[in-house]
Amino acid sequence: MTTRAGFIALIGEPNAGKSTLTNYMVGAKVSIVTHKVQTTRARIRGVAMDGDSQLIFVDTPGLFKPRRRLDRAMVAAAWGGAADADVIVLLIEAHRGVTEGVERILEGLADLPKGRKIALAINKIDRVEAPVLLALTKDMNDRFAFARTFMISAEKGYGIDELRTWLAAEVPEGPWLYPEDQIADLPMRMIAAEITREKLTLRLHQELPYQLTVETENWEERKDGSARIDQIVYVARDGHKGIILGHKGETIKAISKASREELTEFLGRPIHLFLQVKVRENWLEEKERYSEMGLNFKDGNA
């Protein structure tokens, strides 16, 4: 049996569908999916099998114009993930077309070392008519020499099998890099923290989700097969703490309930989740926080 294994970097603007595509390929939720942009921070790897090929998806942060240290570190991580990958897939949204952000990404792709396979995946194809889709495909391929172009809907699963089959044939020959039944290389503590952060992001509005982080402080396995998970939500300002707690603690209770239910389903056993909210004014400038998110603190320097 000839086995193959390789890293596939999914790159694109925030909200292009990279996390949704990762989760669909892997068949489990390993990357948070929200309606808010820039929610993926760490380079989460989802592992999918296709025949004798192991596909390791590097779900990079969305590429955007950075303003803060965290933004700059996220963008550096995205390009680092692309540079290290065996295959790159650029995701763009069919209904948005060639935006200024897509143009910047194409410039960045042109600067990568030659010889790497780069495919284009036009996502959310159900939102446009066929003539618009064909015109966009021609426009993008006139701008860059993509190895292949795929028309997909990451949310509904259209075109994903064809993309997966192509990727399985393109990754290099070699032994599998992960056990066959492993779906992600992130420790469960971090996946649990990401799930809670997703619930916070969905519940809260405006800038606040980017001013908070979640850490799994304690994980206790219990004799009855359940687990107790203690997490801390760090916020940058005292006013943010009140927003997260909500009136009579209603907001934090709703977030905790939603996160607990998903963790219980994800892990297949009862979970007892306890959340605390703490103010840590300078967490966005703490080197340790970046390491925990898989980011390089130095990449955030202006």
UniProtKB/TrEMBL annotation:
Q: Which residues bind GTP?
A: 12-19, 59-63, 123-126
The segments labelled G1 in the record are 12-19
Q: Which Gene Ontology terms of cellular component type are present?
A: cytosol; plasma membrane
At the top level of its lineage, which domain of life is listed? Bacteria
Region ranges (G3): 59-62
- Xref: Pfam families: KH_2, MMR_HSR1
One annotated GO molecular function is: small ribosomal subunit rRNA binding
**Which keywords does this chain's UniProt record carry?**
Cell membrane, Cytoplasm, GTP-binding, Membrane, Nucleotide-binding, Ribosome biogenesis, RNA-binding, rRNA-binding
InterPro entries, per database record:
G_ERA_dom (IPR030388), GTP-bd (IPR006073), GTPase_Era-like (IPR005662), KH_dom-like_a/b (IPR015946), KH_dom_type_2 (IPR004044), KH_sf_prok-type (IPR009019), P-loop_NTPase (IPR027417), Small_GTP-bd (IPR005225)
Q: Indicate yes or no for the key word Protein transport.
A: no
The subcellular location is: Cytoplasm; Cell membrane
Region annotated G2 sits at 38-42
Topology of this chain in the membrane: Peripheral membrane protein
According to its UniProt entry, one GO biological process term is:
ribosomal small subunit assembly
Instruction: Decide whether keyword Transmembrane is in the record.
Output: no
Q: State the residue spans of region: G4.
A: 123-126
| Ranges for domain KH type-2 | 204-281
Instruction: Pinpoint the Era-type G domain residues.
Output: 4-173
Region described as G5: spans on this chain:
152-154
Q: What does this protein do?
A: An essential GTPase that binds both GDP and GTP, with rapid nucleotide exchange. Plays a role in 16S rRNA processing and 30S ribosomal subunit biogenesis and possibly also in cell cycle regulation and energy metabolism.
Q: Which family does it belong to?
A: Belongs to the TRAFAC class TrmE-Era-EngA-EngB-Septin-like GTPase superfamily. Era GTPase family.
Matches recorded under NCBIfam families: era, PRK00089.1, small_GTP
Under the subunit heading, UniProt states: Monomer.
> What name is this protein filed under?
GTPase Era
Question: What is the gene name?
Answer: era
